Amino acid sequence: MENVPVLTATGGTSGMKGFGGYVRKYIRLMRVKTLLIYLFPLVLALSAGLSMDKEGTARSVPVSWMTVLFAYIAFFCGSMFSSSLNFWADVPADKLHDGLYKDEDISKQPFATGDMSKLETWLLFSITGVGCIVFSLLVNARFAAFMIGAVALLGILYSHPWFRFKEKPVLDIVTNATGAVLVLCAGMAIVSSNLPPIQPVVFGFLFGCDFYIPSVANDVPFDEAAGYHTSGVVFGQRNLMFSMIPVCALCAAAGLWAVLSTSLNWQYRLFNGLGIFVAIGFTVFLFLIYRPPHIELNVNLIIVPLAAMLLFYFILGIYELAI
CA-CA distance, 86 to 166, in Å (whole number)? Predict the structure, then answer.
């Protein structure tokens, strides 16, 4: 149980007072910008799956507005569980973090500042964990298997001190990319008994690796000080950054494979086509702004276009469900 944070027996110490502070604490735990990244494959696969069902290229399963709503609730519960568990387990490194070039200032996360009591912590994990399981099962068993599997991987196996995939070189990056693929499969399972086509699965995995590498690299000074053995600490920040080049090349090749696959429906082909340029542009841009020990990236440069694409596919999914 190394590096397990000690929780305070009472409320907070960092001044999160009143209802507003209470709400802000849980919004911070939700880690909204990261949530949007993992929500995207769910929305994409749901939209594409509904279209494939109507085209007869996938085997449909009973779906309704209610099952789609349950799927989103299950995702949000699972995301809150995973994010909170990650914060709970990462207190030693988060306390040292300078808050620069991340989706939020993680040195102010509630577990690091002592704003979570033991009772509040166990209630949080219990409610979100059980909520994810129950609402996933209300969708269908196939969805539950993928969604609960994604939460187990991205939450428990990745973060919990018993496993700590986050501290194992290569596995830290692979875990996050695999988790995104499981969420993609869960999105497809809402409406179909088919798996997503292989092209977006391969592309999504490589895309996830390419985008997660800079996050691991940026945390090297703080992970090293906390005694973690991440990919960045073991291989070195500079070497890890250069690994983006072959990963990006493979990602672009997988994206081109998808774009040229006429059997693939247009939603996936559009994402893969745009994703080629995004992956290449992101990789080149990261090297331009790399100033060791920091990658001086404004995360909103990623989140804003991603949120726009997410909204597009979300609206498209609603349209497909309505007609």
Answer: 9
Structure confidence by residue, pLDDT tens digits, 93-128: 888 776 665 767 788 889 988 899 999 999 999 999
CA-to-CA dists, residue 237 to 35, 77, 167, 224, 232, angstroms:
25, 33, 15, 11, 5
Beta-bridge partners for 171: none
Query: Could you read off the pLDDT of 36-62 as tens digits, one per residue?
Result: 999 999 999 999 999 999 888 889 899
Domain count across the chain: 1
Q: Please check the confidence at residue 243 and state whether its pLDDT lies above 90.
A: yes
Q: Assign 303 to helix, strand or coil.
A: helix
CATH code of the domain containing 152: 1.10.357.140
| CA–CA separation, 219 and 237 (whole Å) | 9
DSSP state of 168: S
Asked whether residue 9 is assigned to any structural domain, the reply reads no
- Answer yes or no: is 313 within a domain: yes
**pLDDT > 90 fraction of the chain, expressed in percent and rounded:** 70
Give the up-direction half-sphere exposure of residue 236: CA atoms within 13 A in the CB hemisphere: 3
Query: 221: helix, coil or strand?
Result: helix
Residue span of the structural domain in which 228 resides? 30-322
53 is written with which tokens?
């069902």
Could you report the per-residue pLDDT of 158-192, keeping only the tens digit for each? 999 999 999 999 999 999 999 999 999 999 999 99
% helix / strand / coil in the chain, to the nearest 5?
Answer: 75, 0, 25
The 10 Å CB-count burial string (b at 16+, else e) for 244-276 is beebbebbbebbeebbebeebbebbbbbbbebb
- Listed in sequence order, the residues at least 6 apart from 320 whose beta carbon sits closer than 8 Å to its beta carbon are 47, 50, 51, 54
